[in-house]
Specification:
Rossmann fold; 9-stranded mixed beta sheet; two-stranded antiparallel ribbon; 13 strands; globular
């Protein structure tokens, strides 16, 4: 028998003895240098380093597999000493019906993929007819309670999953701000503070999150003339700064309902694209028409049909998306929508 065959035989015998022996008392004298250990749990494994010169095997314990946490560590671009940073509770958001990067592929996530595609194409597509300030998107509705904030947050979450896009979600619904309540971020300083204080910079109010490509600007302090501030020259300056300062970033404004305040129409004039949310089986066709009539018909207006009843007895959030320019979409023909 060759030396190589002898070495292989010794290794095989050592391995067999390791696998067959459970009780240390059964070890033959002189074999205490060979250690065997059963894994404590499925996450542990035994690695045997085989040495052909000595014919020995050594067990190495590997650390158990740890699943990815729902709240990962801060992204590498976050400076905890200077940046405003909030860890979003992604598990809680999923329970509330919001999509996250760790969500399973479902109907809602697929619908929002369909919703964001024309928006991104208008803002960054390679065609010649890009929408001016197309990276500024307003999410609104005719009246309150139609799921506007729900849609704005999910749209921001979906765009944040893009490989080459970041998204800034701005809570501009100054009369009924809810973004900070849903996401668990501070209410201020935020948009209103930015409009009032000329010494503040946009970066001073932006909140970074554990979703690496998602940033948030909350509403900020309450002010008796908050709605008027949305129609101010300072708001015009701010939107232009956001459009030009971050040309590769999508900025989503969760804006007031169109029929609730006239200032929301001013905001609509500052952005490049509009997402209009309609609550299925509740919003009247007349309300949809009245609200759409207030908008600039030359801008792309996407309609999201929210809270769709899919099957008898199964009622929840669903999305139907009719995209086109105002006057070309046949969404919400019935009364109510």
């Amino acid at each position: 028998m060759s030396d190589k065959q002898t070495d292989l035989s010794l290794i095989e015998k050592a391995v067999r003895r390791l696998e067959a022996r459970d009780d240390p008392k059964d070890r033959p004298h002189g074999e205490n240098d060979v250690q065997a250990r059963r894994p404590a749990d499925p996450g542990e494994a035994i690695h045997r380093d085989q040495d052909s010169d000595r014919g020995s095997a050594r067990a190495v314990t590997m650390p158990p597999f740890e699943p990815l946490p729902d709240i990962p560590p801060p992204p590498p671009d976050v400076d905890l000493t200077s940046d405003r940073y909030v860890e979003l509770d992604l598990a809680h958001l999923r329970e509330q019906g919001f999509i996250t990067a760790n969500s399973e592929r479902n109907h809602a996530s697929e619908e929002f993929r369909m919703i964001k595609r024309p928006l991104l194409a208008n803002a960054f597509g390679r065609g010649a007819e890009l929408v001016k300030h197309g990276n500024l998107i307003m999410v609104t509705s005719a009246k309150s309670g139609e799921g506007k904030t729900f849609t704005a947050i999910n749209l921001a979450m979906s765009i944040a999953m893009e490989m080459d896009k970041t998204v800034l979600l701005v809570d501009a619904d100054v009369g009924r701000a809810r973004v900070h309540q849903v996401l668990g971020t501070p209410q201020g300083p935020g948009l209103i503070d930015l409009l009032l204080d000329k010494d503040l910079d946009v970066g001073d109010v932006i909140i970074k999150t554990n979703i690496p490509k998602l940033r948030v600007i909350p509403m900020g302090r309450y002010h008796p003339h908050s709605n008027e501030l949305l129609a101010s020259e300072e708001m015009l300056r701010l939107t232009r700064e956001l459009a030009d300062r971050y040309p590769d970033r999508v900025v989503i404004f969760d804006s007031p309902p169109l029929l609730m305040t006239s200032e929301s129409v001013v905001v609509a004039g500052l952005v490049g694209q509009i997402v209009f949310v309609v609550e299925s089986s509740r919003t009247l066709q007349s309300s949809v028409k009245d609200a759409l009539a207030m908008l600039d018909s030359s801008k792309p207006i996407g309609l999201v049909l929210n809270k769709v009843r899919r099957t008898l007895g199964n009622y929840g959030y669903g999305y139907g998306y009719g995209y086109g320019y105002h006057g070309k979409s046949d969404t919400a023909k019935e009364t109510p929508a």
